[in-house]
Design a protein that fits this description.
single chain; alpha/beta; nine-stranded mixed beta sheet; 7 helices; 18 strands; globular
Length: 382
């Protein structure tokens, strides 16, 4: 079967799965805190999905970037074994709809042993109205290294952007993934992403979420080879009535693998942050180390954060822990700064800045500037 025929059949199966998916129940674990109605259009609308608004991707000459629809025919050996294998039609209704209806997608291939000399960057915006879908397939061959930056920005109150990204890190490769979610205040954004990390490969992901009226992200890593490593950082900066829901999964299916996840939220106004995260360690994966934390600063009485960290451990020879904290800015820290002549507003800004700095340090300078502007807006409204 040709790659083009395979892609058509894959889309057809996804359409069937999408139409047969029951609406998500608010009683289910991942939809308990978020209304799915604004995110999921009714079945039958997949044919009318709009194209997202794209800026031309930026990438160095050593990296191959191909339109995904074309890559299915020109690079079937890369696409047919991978597209939809980490995030398929059975993952959920959002993911089935994406696989069935994406209009814009890219394959990113970094050849074996190549160290990309500049980041690969995609800037994606929702259309003026309606639902749109974007798909990304990234393949790092053995010993390759690259930075991939995705920015989801703009949009309007009637715009919905559904994006999916699958990453494959071959043995000894190094991936740096940066996700910037700075969509318009009333836009709706969904993103599902999975990273498969093979033996001795490493992945570092940083998420900055400052936009969208409603956002739901499902982020995960599969540590599939001995010695694989995953490090993830997340920062949520939200004010007004924003509702940002993030779910993470770290699956250790090979021995001596390591994962670390740190997710921090700064909330003001009536903003709400939801975090659910799970670490799974397989029975045949001894010697694993995993850590997961979610920390939240509440700058107003009406802001809210929900956190559900989970551990599913099937092997006793591991080191695994998690934690969550919630609360206002520490008054003792503010008092300490006040005794040194620092005004309260400036002291709050210093404490909040220090709170998010460990994650922001992993962002490119342009993203740090976005974070600084959003922090200033949130602090001024607190």
């Amino acid at each position: 079967m040709s790659g083009a025929s395979w892609l058509a059949e894959t889309r057809g199966r996804a359409v069937t799965a999408w139409r047969e998916f029951p609406p998500p129940s608010r009683a289910s674990h991942l939809w308990r805190y978020t209304d799915p109605a604004p995110l999921i259009p009714p079945p039958g609308t997949e044919a009318g999905m709009a194209e997202p608004v794209m800026e031309p991707p930026a990438f160095p000459p050593s990296v191959q970037v191909v339109l995904l629809a074309e890559a299915a025919g020109s690079h079937p050996d890369i696409v047919t074994g991978r597209l939809g294998s980490l995030i398929g039609a059975g993952h959920g209704p959002l993911e089935a709809l994406n696989l069935a209806a994406w209009k814009t997608g890219f394959l990113v291939r970094v050849p074996a042993g190549v160290a990309a000399e500049a980041p690969v960057r995609f800037t994606v915006r929702p259309p003026v109205s309606g639902s749109s879908a974007f798909r990304l397939l990234v393949v790092l061959e053995e010993g390759a290294s690259a930075t991939v930056i995705e920015e989801y920005a703009g949009g309007t109150g009637t715009a919905v952007l559904n994006s999916v990204a699958e990453f494959f890190c071959a043995p000894g490769s190094r991936l740096t993934s940066v996700v910037l979610q700075d969509a318009a205040t009333d836009a709706t954004v969904a993103n599902t992403r999975r990273i498969r990390i093979e033996e001795r490969a490493e992945s570092s992901m940083t998420l900055l979420a400052t936009g969208a009226g409603l956002a739901k992200f499902d982020l995960g890593a599969l540590l599939a080879g001995k010695g694989a490593k995953s490090e993830s950082w997340g920062v949520v900066i939200a004010g007004g009535k924003r509702h940002l829901d993030h779910h993470t999964v770290h699956e250790h299916s090979a021995p001596e693998t390591t994962s670390r996840f740190s997710y921090r939220g700064v909330l003001s106004g009536r903003a709400r942050s939801v975090y659910t995260g799970v670490i799974r360690i397989a029975a045949d994966a001894p010697g694993c180390t995993a850590y997961q934390e979610n920390r939240n600063l509440m700058l107003s009485a009406d802001a809210r954060a929900d956190s559900i960290p989970e551990l599913e451990i099937s092997n006793n020879e591991v080191s695994c822990s998690h934690g969550a904290t919630f609360g206002p800015v520490d008054e003792e820290q503010l008092y300490y700064l006040a005794t040194r002549g620092i005004a309260r507003d400036d002291a709050v800004a210093m404490v909040v800045g220090g709170f998010v700095e460990p994650a922001l340090a992993h962002l490119p300078e342009s993203a740090r500037e976005i974070a600084a502007a959003r922090l200033a807006a949130v602090l001024s409204s607190a």
